[in-house]
Amino acid sequence: MLSESNAHPMAVVTFGQTLSSTFPCPVIALDLPQIDGPPMAEVWTCDKPVQLHTDPGCSIAMNGTFLIGSMSLDEDADRSMDAAAYEAYKAMLHRLHGLGYPYLWRIWNYFPHINDDQDGLERYQRFCLGRHHALTEVLADFPSSLPAATAVGTKSGPLQVMFLAGTQPATHLGNPRQLNAYEYPRDYGPRSPSFARATLTRSEEEYRLYLSGTASVVGHASRHAGLPRAQTEETIRNIQAVFQQAQHAARFDFIGRQRQALYKVYVRDSAPHAEIQDAIMNSPLSREHVLFLHGDLCRKELLVEIEGLVISG
Prior knowledge:
Number of strands: 19
Number of helices: 4
Distance between the termini: 26 Å
Structural class: alpha+beta
Order of helices and strands: EEEEEEHEEEHEEEEEEEHEHEE
Helix content: 10-25%
Strand content: 35-45%
């Protein structure tokens, strides 16, 4: 399909499947099985020529305005999850500065056994510890420069970090219904999660809102334990609150002039998918493209998480 258009591929993301052809761009293969529908892949393209940068464990596509890249790092007996996260993030940030794209716009983090214990600490908490260490060392204007992010547990694989960065800064947003993640109390681990609730970018043609992985969290507390439909509805209320923040930040009718939206819904295996899907199909999100994936989430009690990309202009 790409060969028949004027689009230049920048990245391809697959979900629990293998591509039958090769692409001249980063390919991120995630062990996140698709729940229903025909097999799909996520393809990022642009209308500008693309330059590639590759070295062991890292692949980046650049177009002069923004880049998309991925890093992959295996754990071993000598490298715990916090050490792997620290190493991956520090290497990523140094590459971005060296390539001239110092501003983080969006990050996705994927690794297996996210809720398992590792030497007395949950693996997600170890990941947050290593990420925080690298970001406070290297990222300018921490924490106000933190971008939107997702962290989801895969069925297998290494630590995989996919990132979007630009030559110009973006606007990072909070949510009035939620405490900033980087201000969470120590109940959630020795270092708080390091991300914004959303990131807003602007070009001559459009605004893009990158919505972080969003769940049934109000303030800093999880809500509706054991109730998948109620968690989904709470998550959607959080998303709608972020839309209002984007509208205020853009000083533009971001909601009314929305052109396209794409959502990924991560569902924990133990959650009844039908209840979650029904809640989404009876919400404003039902009008958009929605992809359902099986994945583990950052808190054991959370059953559903939704992220998105919304384009307006």
